[in-house]
């Protein structure tokens, strides 16, 4: 029924064109493929108070996580040594990711400058900005938002139906790329807004790309610094023992690290104490295995998880457990405990495991 209605609307527009009738732009937009989606906000979506919206645009996509981490480009994209950003900023807190789409006839510069002006009026300053392949680096488009990287797309692959097709393809035909990272505050209390804006021309997704043609899309990523709600309980020594007896491995979520760091936070002490209690109850040998989610480059996550595993092993040794009983390794995102498509799954994947040797 829905597909038939769409076809009827397209035929009416075609008949009008053949008869030389001039239809109002709003009617043309509604009759175009996906016109209604491009003119109406996604259900439940709303503008962030810091950014507002560019006049006449609609919220095409949005996802919100009460607590997550986000890596912002803060330098030019490079190819030497593998595609990467020359500098990034990783922060954690409340994350709101929104894709806006404008009506045809606007420029990416105009849309970017409008967002920047609003943010600067609230005390945000430019941390980094660039324009085009020369300024941003030729791999920027591929690294920032890629059709094949579901984890990096708004919604993480969870948005379905017609709107879900845009989640995958929204920047596939991106031209006249512009990007700005805005910051307010310092250190862990800093707030960030990333603005990735492009004019769509071409693209490889058929009618979806055609619907976006000559429209500007803007990915607005807001990170509000916010403490994580502590919901993970410390695993007691007897529970550790039971889990290792039955399954050979236990996942520990009470070992905490700052984002991108391998230094155990003081809040980890309770879990370390239970691990020591378990290990003192016998002569068993264990592997300490570090895990991450899939956010960021593989080599980076492998190194980070390895450093974290070694930090836990060193902490156990410092509390009297013989170093010969512990072997530490990191496997990064290679053995996930859950899907990385949303923050709940990524939180489960960021863990340290004890494994019986």
Describe the structure.
With 357 residues, the chain is of the alpha+beta class. It has three domains: 1-31, no CATH class; 40-225, no CATH class; 237-356, 60s Ribosomal Protein L30, Chain: A (2-Layer Sandwich). Helix content is 33%, strand content 26%. The protein has helices at 2-18, 25-31, 35-39, 108-120, 132-136, 140-144, 161-169, 207-212, 237-247, 269-280, 298-318, 343-349, and strands at residues 58-73, 77-78, 84-85, 88-101, 125-131, 174-184, 191-200, 216-225, 249-252, 286-291, 326-330, 351-356. Strands 1-4-8-7-6-5 form a six-stranded antiparallel beta sheet, with helices on both faces. A four-stranded mixed beta sheet has the order 9-12-10-11. A two-stranded antiparallel sheet has the order 2-3. The relative contact order is 0.12. The model is unreliable at 1-7, 12-18 and 25-31 (pLDDT under 50).
Adjacency order of strands in the biggest sheet: 1-4-8-7-6-5
Provide mean pLDDT, rounded.
Answer: 89
Shape: elongated
Q: Helix amount, in percent?
A: 25-40%
Q: Give the count of structural domains.
A: 3
Number-wise, the strands total 12
Question: Could you give the order of the helices and strands?
Answer: HHHEEEEHEHHHEEHEHEHEHEHE
Instruction: Assess the beta-strand content as a share of residues.
Output: 25-35%
Please mark out the parts with pLDDT under 50 across 5 or more consecutive residues, or reply none: 1-7, 12-18, 25-31
Class of secondary structure makeup: alpha+beta
Rg over alpha carbons? 24 Å
- The CA-CA distance between the termini, in Å, is 60 Å
Please give the largest β-sheet.
Answer: 6 strands, antiparallel
Q: How many separate helices?
A: 12
């Amino acid at each position: 029924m829905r597909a038939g209605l769409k076809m009827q609307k397209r035929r009416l527009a075609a008949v009008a064109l053949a008869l030389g009738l001039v239809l109002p732009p709003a009617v043309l937009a509604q009759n175009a493929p996906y016109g209604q989606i491009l003119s109406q906000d996604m259900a439940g979506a709303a503008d962030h108070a810091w950014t507002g919206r560019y006049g006449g645009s609609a919220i095409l996509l949005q996802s919100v996580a009460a607590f997550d981490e986000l890596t912002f480009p803060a330098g030019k994209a490079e190819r030497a040594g593998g595609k990467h950003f020359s500098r990034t900023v990783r922060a954690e807190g409340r994350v709101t990711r929104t894709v806006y789409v404008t009506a045809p006839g606007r420029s990416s510069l105009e849309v970017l400058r409008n967002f920047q002006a609003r943010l600067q009026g609230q005390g945000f300053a430019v941390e980094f900005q660039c324009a085009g392949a020369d300024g941003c680096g030729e791999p920027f488009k591929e690294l920032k938002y890629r059709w094949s990287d579901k984890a990096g797309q708004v919604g993480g692959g969870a948005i379905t139906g017609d709107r879900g097709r845009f989640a995958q393809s929204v920047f596939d035909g991106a031209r006249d790329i512009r990007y700005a990272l805005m910051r307010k505050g310092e250190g862990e209390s800093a707030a960030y807004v990333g603005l990735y804006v492009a004019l769509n021309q071409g693209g490889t997704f058929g009618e979806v790309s055609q619907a976006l043609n000559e429209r500007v899309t803007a990915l607005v990523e807001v990170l509000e610094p916010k403490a994580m709600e502590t919901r993970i309980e410390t695993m007691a020594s007897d529970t550790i023992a039971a889990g290792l007896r039955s399954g050979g491995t236990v996942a520990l979520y009470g070992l905490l690290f700052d984002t991108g760091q391998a230094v155990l936070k003081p809040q980890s002490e309770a879990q370390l104490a239970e691990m020591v209690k378990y290990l003192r109850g016998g002569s068993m040998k264990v592997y300490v295995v570090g895990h991450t989610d899939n956010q960021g480059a593989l080599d980076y996550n492998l190194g980070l998880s390895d450093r974290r595993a070694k930090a836990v092993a060193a902490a156990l040794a410092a509390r009297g457990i013989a170093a010969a009983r512990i072997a530490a390794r990191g496997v990064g995102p290679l053995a996930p405990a859950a899907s990385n498509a949303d923050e709940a799954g990524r939180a489960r994947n960021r863990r340290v495991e004890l494994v019986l040797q």
